[in-house]
Design a protein that fits this description.
Two copies of one chain form a homodimer. By secondary structure, the first copy, chain A, is α/β, with parallel strands linked by helices. Chain A has twelve helices and 14 strands.
Chain lengths: 342, 342
């Protein structure tokens, strides 16, 4: 007998080993028959994680046919698309085709959705042999079924935006939502964003502005990015510095700020972010390249009384906020559109 | 010309490569002549980091004489005791023997202090050839000088406690200080501590109680620890669970709590901590074994709206708080004393 929490997390779908969370499982039960709190998706497309696709391609000598066979084998064996070498998955797009009476997700049959939880924990069955995929790109046209649990997350894809734009926004929507929350709670006035010209960076600037911050500084790595960010109007001040050089960041930022948001996806940005932040301020780390010990020991070594947050990819309302910031902020569109293959 | 921030961090003492922070430097200038914002310590003892000492011993075939020569060579070459293989240092004990007129540390000549910043960034000169050390233990009797910068941290060793007790408390004093702050700011009622019978765990329980939390749960790994923690009276409830098994932690804790403090020093405690925490609650990670991606992706995968903090080893007043909790809380003494070789 599973507890409600265990059901909500999908533990009842774990076949092996028993009693672990779906992400840690070797095999899931991908049966399309849903429980009362589950949702079934008719799959249209898988987006494989870039690291996973690269590994599969290299292992198959870039033979597309072999890559396709490998993906089918993984999904058939594991009941989910989790690359056993990289451990990573990706996400999927599809249409809701069944909703259990007790599902709390608010989805309706016919909704086109993107799953915001990883494929590594999503029960998946492929029924078309991936016949429309040549095994040569991360985007995989597919037919089959996927299962969402009570605590899964899926975003309804809006009609007014191209799918590619929506997916690009949903991919990073945790950052602006968390930035907005931190700025509001701290009534922060000054904000620095490291990596401000990227997707999560420009959305975080826009979110900070909307949340009431009045002095926004964008740190970028070169003059090309600086010109683009200046033209967007999202920041009050744009400076160029190597985010991995703590003293360069501190010098470029000048007076330390209330909130620093780290959106650069390279290791070594922890100490610069700490130095950019005033005593009593907050650093939000959104880079997966963040080192926990480097952050913890760096703050201690510099006697920096700063609050450091692990950027949580989930905040209620995060998808809607990112989509709205894109719709309402010309500067966000100007920076994101060139990065999206529409 | 260095900026005030750079001086405060000791950048002026970096010889190679120029322009990095002292911790990242290959060589520091350990000249005992101090600048106006510096403090000089007459060194009495080095406590080498355990990982560093182990590496040095193994590399020297457990020949104490060779280990001593290796430490002297490192300090002589680098101007600091930073093991080039492990990257780690340790801390030191000594007596303040000179204070620059602009030093903000509040130290006086004659104070016996322990440095709370790492040896990896502390300019150090050894003058006795480590003649009183046999190279066979992490505790190194030593004579020489060390330099503190404006943003270094040192704690005056109290007269009423044995050094070994003070050092054990100072080693983990960030955890209770941060716990107290989080509990106060969130007006948290219920708190779970993972690893509650350890040094940082029991201090965190005592700090949470003092900060006003009313429902304290200690999670420990076995019945021996459970009995000791129950006898201490620090927790309202003691449960046994493997902190690396998320579902076991969730089941043992039951109703999720306002604040969860992670003090277990093993990898894999992130997901259990997240599940133990209520929506809107806070997790404070104090284990250096914490994985940033595991925390970030775990919360997202479980759609958990929790605030996750990187435990900062520095909070103003942290040393005094830990020493006071030890003095005033019999349960803390009961758990810590057996762990200290007085």
């Amino acid at each position: 007998m599973r507890t409600a929490v265990e059901r909500a997390l999908g533990v009842h779908r774990v076949l092996e080993p028993a009693g672990v969370l779906p992400q840690a499982a070797l095999r899931l039960d991908a049966d399309p028959a849903i429980g009362p709190d589950e949702v079934r998706i008719a799959v249209q497309r898988l987006n494989l994680d870039a690291a996973s696709f690269r590994q599969l391609s290299e292992a198959a000598g870039n033979d597309g046919e072999a890559v396709r066979a490998a993906v089918l084998d993984i999904v058939g064996t594991r009941g989910k698309m989790q690359n056993p070498v990289t451990g990573s998955g990706g996400m999927l797009i599809g249409v809701v085709d069944a909703v259990g009476p007790d599902s709390p997700l608010g989805l309706r049959v016919g909704d086109r959705v993107a799953t915001l939880v990883s494929l590594t924990l999503t029960p998946l069955r492929i029924t078309d042999g991936l016949a429309r995929w040549d095994g040569r790109a991360e985007q995989v046209p597919a037919e089959g079924t996927a299962i969402l649990f009570a605590r899964s997350i899926a975003a309804v894809l809006p009609d007014d935006l191209p799918d590619a734009v929506s997916l690009a926004l949903l991919d990073v929507c945790g950052a602006p939502a968390a930035t907005a929350r931190v700025v509001e709670r701290a009534a922060a006035r000054s904000v620095v964003v490291l990596g401000a010209a990227g997707k999560s960076g420009c959305l975080s600037l826009a979110a900070a502005r909307q949340a009431g911050a009045g002095e926004l500084t964008g740190v970028v790595r070169n003059e090309t990015e600086a010109a683009a960010l200046r033209a967007s109007g999202l920041a009050d001040r744009v400076v160029v510095a190597d985010a991995t050089d703590p003293l360069a960041v501190a010098a470029a930022v000048g007076t330390p700020v209330d909130v620093t948001v780290v959106c650069v996806d390279v290791p070594g940005a922890e100490h610069g972010a700490i130095l950019a932040t005033a005593e009593g301020g907050t650093v939000v780390f959104f880079s997966m390249a963040t080192s926990f010990p480097a952050a913890a020991l760096g703050a201690e070594g510099m006697a920096a009384d700063v609050t450091m947050l692990v950027g949580n990819g989930y905040t209620p309302g995060h998808a809607a906020l990112a989509l709205d910031l894109y719709r309402t902020t010309p500067g966000v569109r100007a920076l994101i559109d060139p990065r999206v293959e529409v």
